Amino acid sequence: MFDSNSFHYTGNTLSCEEVSLQELAGRYGTPLFVTSAKSLTESYLAFEHAFATLPHFTCYSVKANFNLSVIRTLAELGCGCDVNSGGELFRALKAGVKPEKIVFAGVGKKPEEIAYALESGVLMLKAESVSELRAIDRIAGELGRNATVAIRINPNVTAETHPYITTGDSKEKFGIDEAELEEVFELFGTLGNITLKGLDMHIGSQIFDTGFYVEATMKLLDIFNSAKDLGFCIEYLDIGGGFPVTYDPKKQATPIEHFAQKLIPLLAPAGVTVIFEPGRYLAANASVLLTRILYRKRNHTGKEFFVVDAAMTELIRPALYHSHHEILSVTRHDSTIRADVVGPVCESSDFFARHRELDAAEEGELFAVMSAGAYGAVMSSNYNGRLRPAEVLVSGSEAKLVRRRDTYDQLIQNEVF
Ligand code: LLP
Questions:
Q1: 408 membership: H or E segment, kind and range
Q2: What is the pLDDT of residue 21?
Q3: Contact 333, 359 (CB under 8 A)
Q4: In Å, how far from its chain's centre is CA 87?
């Protein structure tokens, strides 16, 4: 169910690859993110296999999970990176990704971030406005460089997903409108320090319907043809990320092959390198959030709660998007109970599941919140004075601590007091 067999029961205990989650919780404490290197690898290979016949280059969108070891695992397979800030660029470079395999995105890049990207020698910067193109040109000039840029198009396609993660619609802040493109193309004639080599889009995240990609790609291809007619030599078409994963077994994600079947025939004739930026597809099902049941309680209406030691501060997706995450008991039970799974944070939105049928686990036992690898740890916070959790990477029978848990001292280390 969850991306092959990386998380499975061995007897009655849930394991990650060959390591028992029970053992990991004992060794590293909870809450704990546990990531399977095998799952990351298999997802990447599945993606590459689907698009094998298309000249392309896959840039993992590190915003999904920017742990250095996660980035490195994918980079070692040949994957590049899509970064959205100076901080993500720093991480990708630290993880050993070559700058020429990095694309730099972002609707509001600061001058120092533009300079950092140019000095690092990234493959290209994706510009999202006329003002930004001017800024890139100015900074490149100051540095005595020429900047390779792509322009991010807003294709005005409203992909069906949670409204907070649809990005290709004209009412959103992202990209450059078709109506502005004439001005943009003219600008390249007047700015001497930038070269247009790519066209880019990203229509949103967790998109099930291939039709939205087809619609937006056709628009991108129209623009590609206009750019060619104007004499631009476009080498890259970047169609972004957004490919879906299964969070809820009752809502199976569209297989990646379906996207490939629709997109390859459209894109191949362009004769360019296609860039993909999957984040969730590679990372989501590679990790679980392991949490211990602190208390069970039942209120006067008979409603049952599992109060666990993880919270919205570690995985905000249910609170923010009402997203579904499966919850498995690390030790299997024969009986079930309908309950809410809630964290210790003082917000009613601090829940992982509501009114869910779950194994009747006891206090002190462990739950695994599944599919927590994308937009989990990266969106964590210290709200309520909570310590960001530890992270472990499993490969076969080996488990390595890849992020230590925050300490109390770290909570105040930047304060001037
Ligand atoms: N490229 C760009 C320019 C993006 O903005 C994003 C995601 C991606 C690629 C990767 O998209 P993916 O393949 O992961 O769908 N926090 C939300 C998701 C926000 C996505 C932001 N942009 C969530 O937890 O669902």
A1: helix 408-412
A2: 98
A3: yes
A4: 15
* Identity of the residue numbered 27: R
- Ligand 1 pocket by C-beta < 6 Å: which residues? 61, 63-64, 82, 105, 165, 202, 205-206, 240-243, 277-281, 317, 321, 374-375
Q: Which residues are tagged catalytic?
A: 346
Tell me what the mean pLDDT of segment 224-239 comes to.
97
Q: Which helix (H) or strand (E) holds 137?
A: helix 130-142
pLDDT at 2 exceeding the cut of 50: no
Burial of 124 (0-12, 13-18, 19+ CB in 10 A): buried
Q: What structural domains and CATH numbers belong to the chain? A: 7-36+284-412 (2.40.37.10), 105-278 (3.20.20.10)
Is the pTM for the entire model greater than 0.85?
Answer: yes
Query: What one-character DSSP code corresponds to residue 194?
Result: E
Which residue CA neighbors atom 24 of ligand 1 most closely? Answer: 375
- How far does residue 62's CA lie from ligand 1's centre (Å)? 9
Q: How confident is the model at residue 178 (pLDDT cuts 50, 70, 90)?
A: confident
Closest C-alpha to 39, from 8, 5, 79, 62? 5
82 φ, ψ (degrees, to nearest 5): -105, 125
Q: Mean per-residue pLDDT for 171-181? A: 86
In 3-state terms, what secondary structure has residue 258?
Answer: helix
E-strand ranges in 360-417 read: 366-369, 390-395, 398-403
Q: Which residues lie below 8 Å from residue 120, measured CB to CB, with a gap of 6+?
A: 89, 93, 99, 102
- Given a cut of 50, whether residue 3 has pLDDT beyond it is no
Quickly count: other Cβ atoms within 10 Å of residue 237's Cβ.
Answer: 22
Residue 233 CA to ligand 1 centre (angstroms) = 28
- Tell me the C-alpha distance between 17 and 39, whole Å: 9
